[in-house]
Each structure stands twice: as structure tokens, then as C-alpha cells.
Amino acid sequence: MSAVTARSATSGSPKLDPVRALQHALYRAAKADPGRRFHALGDKVHRRDILRRAWVWVRRNNGAPGIGATTLADVEE
Hints:
Strand order of the largest sheet: 1-2
Number of domains: 1
Mean pLDDT: 80
Strand content: 5-15%
Protein name: Group II intron reverse transcriptase/maturase
Low-confidence stretches: 1-10
Distance between the termini: 36 Å
């Protein structure tokens, strides 16, 4: 199974992973124009699916306190 698609359990047809699709679109845009600057990514970073994926990755890696020393337990409260 590719990183961009996942098999749907019910239909068996490929389903586009929206997070990977966004990553791929941004990658293509940056490669097409190396001088391009992305000024408005906040709306993309704050998408629920992006935040959920990021949280799964942080939990999987047991997180690491950043500059504010915020732990996973602090965030989960």
C-alpha cells in the first residue's frame, strides 16, 4: 500500500489520504518554483486531520518537552 493511498475496508478501492495529499501538493509547488514562499500555512496546520496525525506521531515517539517544558500529560489535561 502506498503512503498516499489507503485501501478502504468496505469498498476495496484506493482512498486518498488527505494529509498526504496536502503534503504532496505543497512539495510539488515548492519543487516547481524553488523561490516560492508559503506565507499562509496556518489554515493548513490547524486542520483537524493534520493536528490528529501530528498528535499520533508525538504520542508514538513519547513526545519530548520543548522550550516550555510542556509534557504529554499537561497537554492531555
